Amino acid sequence: MYNDEIAPGDQLQHHNARKTQAFYYSFLEFGADALSSEFLWFTLSATRSDDVSEINGLSFGTFAKAQMMSFEPWSSTGFQCGSIIIWAKVKLFVADESAIKFTLDVKGASGNLPCFKCRNCLSKKTFAKTRPNSDLLSITDIDYEAFLKHDDNSLKANAQFLAEQKSVLKKIQFEKLQTSLGLNYNPDGIILSGLDFMPISGTCYDPQHVLLVNGVFNSEVGQLIVVLKSMKITISDMASFFQSFNWPFQSKSGNNLFDHRSNSSITDKEKNTQC
Q: Are residues 200 and 123 part of one domain?
């Protein structure tokens, strides 16, 4: 199952009432090549984001649980497909960091544990307050082997502990506990739902976002530009380099990526925001 928010129209407007939460599904048995085709991903639901936000409580986590629950009959009675019956269950949830955060009711960057899959990886600010020589690490650490991983049971245990403390702790204490565990308490969410879904082994950060969309590629290119600038390589040099390639017929953006924009094509609003 895959989730993403679709935002038709102006991406910069203050409130886009057309924003839509879309869920899709496919079958792992299709294999990687087939799953790279949009024609083998099927729409599960498309709901206005404004409508989702009106659900009581932690709305998105509750809404995402309902999407997963819609597959439950497939795991017990299956569904008819031509002359055969297919059984299926939600095995893997794929999304970007933001969607995973709201789907599983984890705090992400607003908690002490930015990555819900790690048990000892702290935000930079939180790590600065820890005692030295502990097994806690900063999110900036690059020693991958030193990270202690959550498993499905340990994450569920933390969520269950949070539920048990809800009626014991005062509001401020409970909020601090949520921040420490990197979880938001949602009794109607996926982790506490009893669904046959494994939140750690069954959740995957979308590779397209990790590598391309605001991901590793953006960071690497940003650092490369700084190096090129120090080598006296100009924008015109980069433009010439990009124009030396044969770009796909329907994607010519590479040829004019570094072109100067004429003033006639720039709106007054854009002129005011240019550096």
A: no
CA distance 119 to 115: 8
| Same domain assignment for residues 92 and 190 | yes
pTM of the model: 0.79
Task: Tabulate helix, strand, coil % of the chain (nearest 5).
Answer: 40, 15, 45
Pair type for strands 203-205 and 93-95: parallel
Same-domain check for residues 126 and 251: no
Distances (CA, A) of 114 to 91, 100, 120, 129, 182: 24, 12, 10, 16, 7
DSSP structural state of residue 130: S
Residues 128 and 10 in one domain: no
Average pLDDT, integer, range 261-266? 52
Antiparallel, parallel or unpaired: β 20-25 and 79-81: unpaired
Judged against a pLDDT cut of 70, whether residue 11 lies above it is answered with yes
Kindly state whether residue 269 falls inside one of the protein's structural domains: no
